Amino acid sequence: MTDTLLLVGRAHVSAVAQRHAARLRERGVADAVAVATYDEDPAELAPAVEGTPYVVPLAAAPGRDTMQSIPGALPAARHCAPVGTNPAVTRALADRAREALSPGADASVALVAFGDASGTDARQTAEAHAERLRSATAYGEVRTAYLLQNPAAECVRYNLTGERGVAVPFFVAACEETDRALPAKLDLDRGGLAYADPLGDHKAVTDAIEAEFERARAAGSSTAAVSPVATDGRGP
Predict the structure, then answer these.
(1) Are residues 222 and 157 in the same domain?
(2) Within this chain, do residues 191 and 94 fall inside the same structural domain, yes or no?
(3) Can you name the residues that pair with 110 across neighbouring β-strands?
């Protein structure tokens, strides 16, 4: 039986997905590693893979796509938790913050996520990373903000208390939200607030993909993507 690891995401993650896939092939984590993307609807997915693939969604948090649409489009696959739920991603977020603003007691971090107005999974995932950032970094403050939930991204400037601040977009790859929506809501043109890169091809994200794949393979069945998400941002 062929173990195939399939990275699935929206079209804007394609280049990043290919870099992670290449790294995973070098590590020899599976018999085959493939990438499949879609523009708007996961029903577009038609990956040419052998055997029963293990699907890792390249998404920051659980949502309709990862919990319903992707499993519906690929019913024979084994579905893993979205990569953004894995604790290894906290290391990538910490590095992105440090690249934009050096840590210190006078420095604040705003972890800015897409959010989900109809559920709590996105908030739970972001809050879990924020809590780990508070414990693992020397920043004086770490807060969360969202495009679709409160606390709203446009309030970041007023909610941070440090003398210095950085907004870290909790997104897998650059997209309309990271390039236009967030800079506008954060009013970056005013200055005084650093802005970090999204997760991108950080090696910790590759580690997270591998960890979710190994967890699903060990379980031998579908996992967190179609199950309730625990308060640490991971499935049971």
Answers:
(1) no
(2) yes
(3) 143, 167
* Beta-carbon-side half-sphere exposure of residue 87 (alpha carbons within 13 Å): 8
Domain with residue 142: its CATH number is: 3.40.50.1400
pLDDT tops 90 at residue 227 = no
**CB-CB contact of 225 with 72 (8 Å):** no
Residue 231 lies in a domain: no
Pair of tokens at residue 172: 């897998």
Per the CB < 8 A criterion, the answer to whether 234 and 119 are in contact is: no
How many Å apart are CA 96 and CA 111, to the nearest integer? 11
Q: What is the pLDDT of residue 1?
A: 62
pTM, to two decimals = 0.92
Buried b / exposed e over 187-201, threshold 16 CB at 10 Å, is eeeeeebbbbbbbbb
Based on the fold, state whether residues 214 and 154 are members of the same structural domain. no
Whole-angstrom CA distances from 7 to 35, 83, 138, 143, 174 are 5, 10, 33, 30, 17
Residue 235 resides in a domain: no
The pair of structure tokens assigned to 45 is: 């997915």
Structure tokens at 29: 């984590």
pLDDT at residue 212, rounded to an integer:
98
Alpha-carbon distances of 177 from 97, 151, 232, rounded to whole Å: 18, 17, 25
Structural domain boundaries, residue 69: 4-85+201-226
Contact 150, 79 (CB under 8 A): no
